[in-house]
Amino acid sequence: MGRLKYENVLTEAQRDFIRDNGSPDLTAADLAKKFNEEFGKTFDIKKIERIRRRLIPGFGSNVSRFRRLEDMPQEQLDFLRRESVPQRRSSELAEMFNSRFGTAYKVTTIQRWRPRLVPGTSFNYPLGTESNTYGYIRVKVPGKTRWERWMPKQRLIWENQYGPCPDDHVVCFLDNDITNFDLDNLLAIKKKMLAFMIIMKIPKLALKVPGMSGTIAAMHQLAHQHSKIVRGRKDDEDRFKKLPPLYQPVGRPGFAY
User: Fold this and answer.
1) Distance CA 77, CA 67 (A)
2) How far apart are CA 157 and CA 181, in angstroms?
């Protein structure tokens, strides 16, 4: 079954209301407010704007939405220049602009226009800026790609002390407290060892016990050999017992093994 369109679930009176009141002089925000007050609905601005475009033929050509800055009215240009302060995010500015003028510009469009409207102003986050993603802190650092520019804070602190972290390692919180950035609480663990510990439900705090990391590596090696023997033929058992070790000890401070 196809997705229902908003205008198909409206009553005739509601459609007539939008046709009668949806003039280009009325912004989508004002129309949404009047419509919701009249019929007791909770339609947001984007829904009302889409419905108005579909119900009123040719309305899209009359809406103040332009592809080029040179074609925009002076009032909208002045608004963007006035509100484009470095502390304001492009998503917030786009929401303010669309609500004020009843448009539907994307955040990427507003983000692309901001440097042209206010030349010489940088809207990028400065180095050292911290962002919070589901409780995990990332720090802005020099880099070419997005993933290189935003580094987990625990990894940055660890690398400042011990040097670059290998690609096959991940810096973990031993006590599982993602806000505890104490260096004693951070440890670089091989990804496959961490996966094995999660499967076996071994707490990361166990790695603080002397010699425990070597024991866990040996357990993983035996489990790896056993899985190969079970999957292979019986006459291959001796060959699988001579498999190369899964882990090569790093032997440096800050590493689990």
Assistant:
1) 13
2) 8
Among 23, 39, 61, which residue terminates a domain?
Answer: 61
Instruction: With both helix axes pointing from N to C terminus, report the angle between 12-21 and 45-55 in degrees, rounded to the nearest 10.
Output: 90
Are residue 105 and residue 147 in the same domain, yes or no? no
Determine which helix (DSSP H) or strand (DSSP E) holds 90, and give its type and residue range: helix 90-101
Which two tokens mark 75? 């009032």
**Whether 30 and 10 share a structural domain:** yes
d(C-alpha 123, C-alpha 84), whole Å:
9
Q: Are 186 and 157 in contact (CB under 8 A)?
A: yes
172 touches 191 (CB < 8 A): no
**Which tens digit of pLDDT belongs to each residue from 105-164?**
888 888 888 878 877 666 667 788 888 888 899 998 888 776 788 899 999 999 999 999
CB 187 within 8 A of CB 165: no
